[in-house]
Amino acid sequence: MEIKQNASAGTTESSDILITLAQNDAKGIHIDLDSSVEKQFGRQIRAKIQETLEKLAVTNVKVNAVDKGALDCTIEARTIAAVYRAAGEEMIDWQVIQSWNV
């Protein structure tokens, strides 16, 4: 999926994550993480964002993530929502996303 515009999903409330996406002219996926639990879970949070982007075929994107202790399912959901918004997609293909967990 191609990132066409800046977009975000989530909040900075406790147990949530704010994911903001922008085009990356330098190519590749660049993740900037600010997390209250970065020392314990920073690697896992980055991996979940990276994994979700790869499943959605996003190859060039700058990610700014502000985490306040979100669970993996929340990180994945916020990343999916931000990608679809940034790609200008109106409808999410839930059948594809549901097949990830099978």
Automatic annotation (TrEMBL):
Subcellular location: Cytoplasm
Any one GO molecular function term: lyase activity
Pfam family, one: ACP
Key words of the record: Cytoplasm, Lyase, Phosphoprotein
InterPro entries per UniProt: CitD (IPR006495), Mal_deCO2ase/Cit_lyase_ACP (IPR023439)
GO-annotated cellular components: cytoplasm
Chain positions found as O-(phosphoribosyl dephospho-coenzyme A)serine: 14
Residues forming coiled coils: none
Complexes and interactors: Oligomer with a subunit composition of (alpha,beta,gamma)6.
Function: Covalent carrier of the coenzyme of citrate lyase.
Family stated for the protein in its record: Belongs to the CitD family.
Protein name: Citrate lyase acyl carrier protein
